[in-house]
Each structure stands twice: as C-alpha cells, then as structure tokens.
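Task: fold both queries, return tokens.
Query 1:
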Amino acid sequence: MISSTNKRAFKPIYQRIGIKILCFLLVSACSFANKSYCFRLYLKDKGAPPFSISSPEAFLSVESVERRMLREVFVDETDFPVSQAYMDELIANGVSPVVQSKWMKTVVVESPDSAVVEKLKSISFVDSLTCVWNGVDRQGVLSCNEEDTSWFRSMDNPLEKLYGYAENQMEMLNGLRLHTIGYRGKEIRIALIDAGFMNVNRIEAFSSMKLLGARNITFPGRSVFCEDDHGTKVLSCIAANLPGVMVGTAPEASFLLIKSEDTRGEFPIEEDLWVAAVEYADSVGVDIVSSSLGYFRYDSIVNYYSRSDLNGQTAFVSRIADIAAQKGLLVVCSAGNEGGNEWEKITFPADVPNILTVGSITSDREKSSFSSVGMTADYRIKPDVVALGTMVCVINSAGQVQYTNGTSFSAPIVAGLAACLWQAFPLLKNTELIKLIKNSSSQYQHPDAQLGYGIPDMLDAYNKANHDAWRSF
C-alpha cells in the first residue's frame, strides 16, 4: 500500500486468538466466490536443501556474501530457500507457486479451485494456511507500450542553484555539505520497493543513474517502467541528477528497482510480495532497502490490525523487516500518512525497532498534518526522524518537476543521505548508522511521538562519526 495515500493491510491470522475459527472464516469467504484464490502456506520446515553454509555463493550473490562479511553478519540456514522437492509436491497437488519466503518458511500458491484447501491441509510439511487473495484475474494489468522509446526531457527553467528546485529538502538536513566533501552515495547499493517506476528508463533526470536491475514481483516478466509513477517520484528524491532542476540525495548510488504493489485493490498477498522483494534485495547484495509502502487495512477485512499490534513482532511485513535488519540491511520506511484520520498511528512495518522510520515535516519544520505518529504499542519512539514531506520537489512520469506531499518522499530523502554517510564510513553496522543519525537529530535529548528524534543534521553525523564520540551516548 502506497504511503502517500490512505493504506490498508491485514493481520497475520496465525498469531491471533481463535486461529481455527478465523482461518475457517477466511477460507470460507474465498470459497463462495467464482474467482481465483491464493493461499499462504506456513511450512513446518523447508525440506532438505542441496546447500551448505560453507558455500553461500550457491544461494546468495557474491555481493550479498561480501556485504555480510564486511558488516559481520553470518550466513545461516534461514538463507536456504524452500526445497525444490517441496515445491514439486505442491505443484503435483494442483497449485501454482507464486512467491515464497525462505526466512518465514512460507509459500504462496494459486489455484482456480477453492476446494484445493483440503488437499493442501493434508500435505505432511504444511502446518497451516490462510487465504491471501480472492479476486478476478490476478495477473491482469493495464497494457504497456514498451516499444515507445520517446525521451522525456525537462521543460523546467534551470535555476542557478546546483540542486535546483530540490535544494530546500537537502538543506534542511545539512546534506549539501556531505556532497561538497565528496560523499554522494558512490558504491552504495539501494533497493527501492514500490508500486511502479513509470518512464524512469526514458526520463532525462535519470539518464546518469546506475541501474543494477529491475524486478517485477507482482507481475513476473513484465516491465516495472509502466502502470504507476509513485516509484518514479520516490526514486527522484534520491537518484535524480539534473543540475539546476533537481539533484537527489544520493545521485551516485546504484539502484535496484522492485515492484511489489498491486494498485488495483488491497489484499493480504501484497505483504507476501513485499516480503519476496526484501528477500530478493538481500540475496543480490544491496546495502539499503527504501520502502514507501505501508499496511494496516485490507479490502473487505475489518479490524484485522489494531494499534496494539504495533509492536514490531506481529505483522508479516514487520517480522520480515526485523529479519532484514538482522541480516545487516538498513531498512528505511515511511511512517505513513494516517496522522489526520482515525488510525493516526504509524503503519506496518514502520513499527520495527532496528529500521529507520521517517515522518514528514513542512518547510517551517513543523509536523505535517498527515504524518503518522507513534508511539509503538510497546512504548518505543517512532517515527525515528523526520524530513520534508509537504510540498516536496519530485520528478514525475513526464520528466517534469512536481510538488507533492507524503512520507513516501521524506523517507527516500533520508535514505539517500544515509547512503552518503555509509559511503563515508562503510564499516559501520546498520544499527550503528541508525544510532548515529538519531544522535545527530534536532531533538535527540527529548524525542517525542510526533517527530521522533527530530530533523537529522547529516554533517553533524559525519563529524560525530569522524571523532567516534557518538558511540559513548
């Protein structure tokens, strides 16, 4: 769910009281409609994989192994995928695998027949299951003219300022100084997980961007450069490099673009798609995952999340974000835009302790009215920090400057500058980097549920890391 609009999500049923009744109700709800069905299977184990921890290159990229070695993170059996024998048995039972989570031991399968539930329950390695999709033509999408190679050039008048119309959002965090001393994100690998990156491959502002690759988790084999431009705008906050018009916070970083969102509706399967995106990003060796997606409600499912679940351990996506942090990734997440509605609080997975949750402020350095607030259910400070999220400069799918609102955009602004800091101090662990940023923020001594630790001063963070003084706090 895109955090620049009202988001909805689903509570993992297996953790709730009355598990049998609730699972029955969900499966029954799927059974009465003439639609396609997807089920999340919780496995007892992952089978016997033909891998060894001593040879991690067989199931992780060289870059992923190198990143873990650099930051002292060990490869273990949680990194093994579900065995092919298990996948073959699922297929033999009349279902098609959609995505899996090696970290959570789950597989999502699809079938045109809801009666397959009884078959799935009887498989020896299946512990439990829940319905995560009940819709028509899950793979149906809008058409995309990939033969169009027209170039989108900016029609905006260049300013004398190098950072153009985006200078204010950089200055607020003292990010210009980091760039001046030579840190612009070089050698840092950033994965953006979003709804789509319309026309990024044809926009002048991204022409110098280092693209590691693109992957469509939602619609495998289809382009990520169609259908939705939310990711285009998010990406521009970090990667745009058009002097005088817009320069992002880490224009020399390398980028992996992943589509995990299905904007046609809100179903629990979107959590599984997000999880698959994070695990893929980890497996190919990125340093940072920046996500401007958030979850707390789904279509036709009422009150499956409550504020009491904001503990970093309940939501499916939150549990995966926590594991990603344990694997050494810096996960940067938008706080959500629910501050002005009934929910009010941060969305999932923004409740996870060891990720960097970013809220929104105005140009007057006041909290944006829409920005979601804390605290978490277990009384932790969230959001962690804030950045400009009201009237943010972005590049839209036509390649032009646009001003827009949302924590969707404050999060990547911070993610890019975190990349610059990591470039300067590559031996820092992700938790140390988060601590450094929080300790260098405007209200570090008196954090609150509105702005967290406040507005980061990235030059101050750089200076603290140089002197190592921050480690004593």
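Query 1 returned. Query 2:
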Amino acid sequence: MSIKPVALAVIGGAALLTLSACATSPELAAPGVTLSVQQAGEPQQVTGGVQLLVLLTVLSLAPAILILATSFTRIVIVLSMIRNAIGTPTIPPNQVIIGLSLLLTFFIMAPVYNQIDQQALQPYLKKEIDQDTALNLAVEPVREFMFKQTREKDIQLFLDLSGKSQPKTLADISTVDLFPAFVISELRTAFTMGFIIYIPFLIIDLVISSVLLSMGMMMLPPSLVSLPFKLLLFVMVDGWYLITRSLTLSFFR
C-alpha cells in the first residue's frame, strides 16, 4: 500500500476535526492571544458593530478625502507644473513637493478645522450633542469652503446629470453633487495658474532656441542652455515666495 494516500487521509481527517472544533467553540486561544466570537443578543450590539465598520471605512477613505476635499489638489498640481516649466522634473523631489503641499494645505484649512473643532468636535466630546448632529455640524464648514471655490457652472452640471430640480438655496445642494463639482473647479483653477506660470519660461526657451539656430549650433540641446537662465529668472523674482503667496491668496479671495 502506498504511504502517500494514507498520509493525505490522516491530514484531511485532522483538518476536519480542527474545523469542527472551531465551529463548536466560540473561543479560540493561542499563546498570549485569545479570540472569542459571540452572537449579538441585542439590536444595540448590532448597531454598534455596523457603526464600527462604517468608521473603519471612513478612515480608509480619509487620504482621498484629504486630497480632494481640501486645497491640496490645486497646490500640488501648481507646484508640479512649476517644476516641469523650469525643466527640472526631479528637482525638487516628489517628497518635497508633497510635503510642501501638505503644509500649505494645513495652513489654508486651519480656519475650517478650528470651526469644526468648536462647533462639532468639542460639543460632542462634552456629550452636549449626539453623533449625527456632530457629523452634520462638521460638514457645514467644509461645504462652505467648497462653495467659495466652486463655479456655479460646475455645480449645475452635476445637478443636471443627477436629474435634480433647481435648488433655491445652497442648503438644497447635496454634498454628493458639490464634491465632484469642487474637484473639477480645482482642476480648472490649477491648470489656469500653471498655464500662466509656463509663459515666461516658454519665452526663454524660444529665445534660446532662436539664438542657437542663428548661430548654427543645432546639435546643442536648447533645454541645456536655457535651464540656467530659467533658474536665474526664478531666483531673481523670488519665485517660491510669489507662488506660495499666490496659491494662499487664491483661497481667500
């Protein structure tokens, strides 16, 4: 008789016994670790489990919300376009661009966060309001910020796509319609600012290319010669100061 089928049968039997023991025992123990599974006997326990699941889902989506519902999108796009306009696609590194974008985002969104803390978080921690009221109060400052940066045309687009009636007040516009409208408005503003930033560097490239062509130096890459001039221009006008000032003031207009 072959040993392999017997060994497989023994292993399979042991596995079935283990699974049956796990199914009948509500508690699994390991060295230093104990896992217990109990059935919910009351509706409140089921509701608490569902709330915990929703909370974990929201926390997993927090980075996306931070990127799309704040000033981060506009800032990181503009800073990335500046880097490409100068002609140094890897300088500053991505870590510096992302870090500076996050710092500016925290600075710009600080009034909104303070308002959320005063209106929603602190009263909820003091048990003055319930969870649903705290969430509704926390969303209002964010909605107000998004309304200031969103074009009416973009909001109307998503209202028409969803087939909703014309709202009478801003409160009638749901966050589901406001969120994507805010994102495409931010993308449009970021690309507009990037286009304006590109113009002086593009002029330098054209001038350098014309000079090299007139001198017969066609084998020399124009970007190699124009890079020092673009860096000199950016440093002389204090480019990082101007860009940071323009980005910050664009959210407080």
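Both queries returned. Flag for query 2: Residues 175-214 form the longest helix (40 residues).
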